[in-house]
Write a structure and sequence with these properties.
Blueprint: E1 2-7, E2 22-23, E3 26-27, H1 28-39, E4 44-48, H2 52-60, H3 80-95, E5 100-104, H4 113-125, E6 130-136, E7 145-147, E8 153-155, E9 172-182, H5 183-187, E10 197-201, H6 213-227
Parallel strand pairs: 1-4, 1-5, 6-10
Antiparallel strand pairs: 2-3, 5-9, 6-9, 7-8
Helix pairs in contact: 1-4
């Protein structure tokens, strides 16, 4: 059995009610639910929330909210991993044999159903226990700068001052969209960013963190252009 877990707490600080705020005509959360449904991959799509309004909206768009998330897992310090594990263990107890779990961010409007399918296929093809979406940094991280105490600048890796960019190793970062995992790897506490995982590389134009109002506005503009 495969399940999707979408964490969506009610206490977003920087963008109030972010998970259900209208994004290009739908509550933000709805885009993740619809992608999960359209993929056809899941026996259950669970939204983990502590908020009754979010719960009702999630149900309206076709997700299940079989429990309310406990308060200790709904604060600013409860990460996606512990929230996903809580939901997965609940599902294991109530639904039976859970083989695979996919945590999907509630703020991932650029996610495609095909990404979820490809991620699962990539994980099983490479015999890994985890798969997550990633994308390439647009600029060589070896050339990153820091501001010094005297307001000057210094390279983090000055040894690469004269290295040609095409000779530098590409670097990638988490796309913040989805995380496939075997149930056993969740129970065993296997870290995502490890040899146990394989990344599904996405193009940069389909990756956008949405943590501030500026992020939100940029994401809406990008989303509209992408849809057109």
């Amino acid at each position: 059995m495969k399940i999707a877990v979408i964490p969506a707490r009610g206490g977003s600080k920087r963008i109030p009610r972010k998970n259900i705020k209208d994004f290009c005509g739908k509550p933000m959360l709805a885009w993740s639910i619809e992608a999960a449904k359209a993929s056809g991959m899941f026996d259950h799509i669970i939204v983990s929330t502590d908020d009754t309004e979010i719960a009702e909206i999630a149900k309206t768009w076709g997700a299940e909210v079989p429990f309310m998330r406990p308060a200790e897992l709904a604060n600013d310090f409860a990460g996606t991993g512990v929230v996903t594990r809580h939901a997965a263990e609940w599902a294991l107890e109530h639904y039976g044999n859970i083989e695979f779990v996919c945590a999907i961010y509630a703020t991932a409007p650029f996610i495609k159903p095909s990404d979820l399918i490809s991620g699962f296929e990539l994980m099983t093809k490479h015999n890994k226990s985890k798969c997550f979406a990633a994308t390439r940094f647009p600029y060589p991280i070896q050339r990153a700068l820091r501001i010094t105490q005297t307001s000057g600048v210094a390279m983090f890796q000055p040894e690469h001052m004269g290295t040609r960019s095409q000779d530098l190793e590409p670097a990638y970062h988490d796309a913040g969209q989805f995380y496939w995992a075997t149930m056993q790897s969740i129970l065993d506490g296997v870290p995502t960013f490890s040899e146990a995982a394989v990344p599904l590389i996405l193009p940069r134009h389909r990756v956008q963190d949405i943590d501030t109002e500026e992020d939100w506005q940029f994401a809406e503009m990008l989303f509209k252009l992408y849809k057109e």
